[in-house]
Write a structure and sequence with these properties.
One of its GO terms (molecular function) is DNA-binding transcription factor activity. This protein is of the alpha/beta class. It has two domains: 151 residues, Orthogonal Bundle (Arc Repressor Mutant, subunit A); 158 residues, 3-Layer(aba) Sandwich (Rossmann fold), CATH 3.40.50.10490. The chain is 50% helix and 9% strand. The strands form two sheets. It has a five-stranded parallel sheet with strand order 4-3-5-6-7, sandwiched between helices. Strands 1-2 form a two-stranded antiparallel sheet. Strand 5, helix 12 and strand 6 form a beta-alpha-beta unit. It is globular, with a radius of gyration of 21 Å. The two termini are 35 Å apart.
Length: 334
């Protein structure tokens, strides 16, 4: 699969997680489920003792709730100029945030890093992972793979990515997404990149059977411009954007956020720049057996969201679905 930006393909880091691990154990991004819940606000879906991947960007974003006022200033400064602000010296970052250098050091330690140097190394590795493409990533399956070994190896990799994605998922964040999408007073619009647009269409195909007021946006510039003029506080914009990130999608997310719309972002662990404008962020793993990124975990999460919205709507959703089915009629083939 080529990249969402349409210029290069999208690829995954090696299944071993070596990009993250090069920063050392304390900066690897791999933490236990209990630690992820305590330090990064991860949901309770992770099993006890399970290792999950939480990127630097996601750790910073999740730290906002439990941080001191000074640490929140550091976090917001990082997210506003991510990741470049974190590559500056601790003193310069402190100056940007209007806090002391020790506050920056305490914040970095609170994120789980052994020191500021380990934090910066993790950031550099994350930048490398964000820019990955099929031209820079290795095939996970060796040459001469047999059909049987392909089935076993690929199946194991996909199961691992699904387990990691759901273990790292924040329950409060997911609940908030479901609340927005099931609210009949909200208008729901969806958009994705060159390839992730299929996820937007897939989600809309289900939501429109359960509730009114949903649509997939026409990605042409003139159509997005016209929509942006009319957008307001009643609107929820669901954005799908995975590495490499698509400039027009990111800019659109920022624009509708400025006009008061709620932005829900589905992205990868390294976080699309659209996360700066997002009210809620749902990251999933994207690595695959081939050098091309996978939408399998993302699709599983979309299915999860559909199930959650259906449960929230209850009888009202079932009745709308029944009426839609009656109008469509029997289209099955015996």
């Amino acid at each position: 699969m080529t990249g969402d930006d349409g210029r290069t393909g999208r690829g995954g880091v090696p299944a071993s997680g070596e990009v993250a691990e090069r920063a050392g154990a304390s900066a690897s991004g791999k933490v236990s489920a209990g630690s992820a819940a305590g330090k990064a606000g991860a949901g309770s879906a992770a099993g006890e003792g399970a290792e999950v991947f939480v990127s630097v960007a996601e750790r910073v974003r999740r730290s906002l709730d439990g941080s001191s006022p000074g640490e929140r200033l550091v976090a917001r400064t990082l997210l506003a100029s991510y990741p470049t602000a974190g590559l500056e010296t601790a003193a310069r970052l402190a100056e940007r945030a209007g806090v002391s250098a020790p506050t920056v050091v305490r914040f970095v330690a609170r994120l789980g890093f052994a020191g500021y140097r380990a934090f910066q190394q993790a950031l550099r590795d994350e930048i490398e992972a964000r820019r990955a493409s099929p031209l820079t990533l290795a095939q996970q399956l060796g040459d001469g793979v047999t059909p049987d070994s392909l089935r076993v190896s690929a199946g194991a990799i996909f199961r691992q990515r699904l387990d990691e994605s759901f273990a790292a998922l924040s329950d409060p964040e997911l609940e908030a997404v479901l609340d927005l999408l099931a609210d009949p007073a909200r208008r729901i619009a969806m958009i994705g990149g060159r390839f992730s647009h299929i996820l937007a269409e897939y989600l809309d195909l289900h939501l429109r059977l359960l509730r009114p007021g949903t649509r997939v946006l026409d990605p042409r510039p003139e159509s997005l411009a016209a929509f942006s003029v009319d957008v307001g506080r009643r609107d929820v914009i669901v954005v799908f954007d995975y590495r490499r990130y698509q400039r027009d999608v990111v800019e659109f997310a920022r624009r509708v956020h400025e006009r008061g719309a709620k932005v829900v972002l589905f992205t990868d662990p390294w976080l699309s720049p659209a996360s700066e404008a997002a009210d809620l962020v749902i990251p999933v793993r994207v690595e695959a057996p081939s050098p091309f990124d996978s939408l399998v975990p993302a699709l599983a999460l979309v299915e999860t969201v559909v199930a959650g919205v259906m449960a929230r709507l209850g009888k009202e959703g079932e009745e709308r679905l029944r009426q839609c089915e009656e109008i469509v009629g029997d289209v099955t083939v015996d």
